[in-house]
């Protein structure tokens, strides 16, 4: 995913972000966030060809590994709905340092938005209920 992000940034003429900027206080719009798809050939760690949907936000990348029969449009929509909620659960360790997700928050989000690894068609009312629950 990092290679795909760098390739997209270099081809668009945008400089790459060397370190994680401070998270803004307001929600982030992901409409223009770089995103894409690429395929991984059969082998380690996946026995068959898989497609990876990715989304880059700030200096982070989020990815979903999709089986061949999965809906890739739904994967992108799921990433765009999951990413801001995961960003809200980030704990920054310091300037230029790594970040950590609060595991309990990430587990709840993944369990609600991707139950048993299955992508769901998510409506706004359901997302608001998840946000209240968090």
Automatic annotation (TrEMBL):
Residues 1-36 are annotated as: Disordered. It holds the Pfam family AP-5_subunit_s1. GO terms for cellular component: AP-type membrane coat adaptor complex; cytosol; late endosome; lysosome. GO terms for biological process: double-strand break repair via homologous recombination; endosomal transport. Residues 1-14 have a biased composition (Polar residues). This is AP-5 complex subunit sigma-1. It comes from Pelecanus crispus. The lineage of its organism: Eukaryota, Metazoa, Chordata, Craniata, Vertebrata.
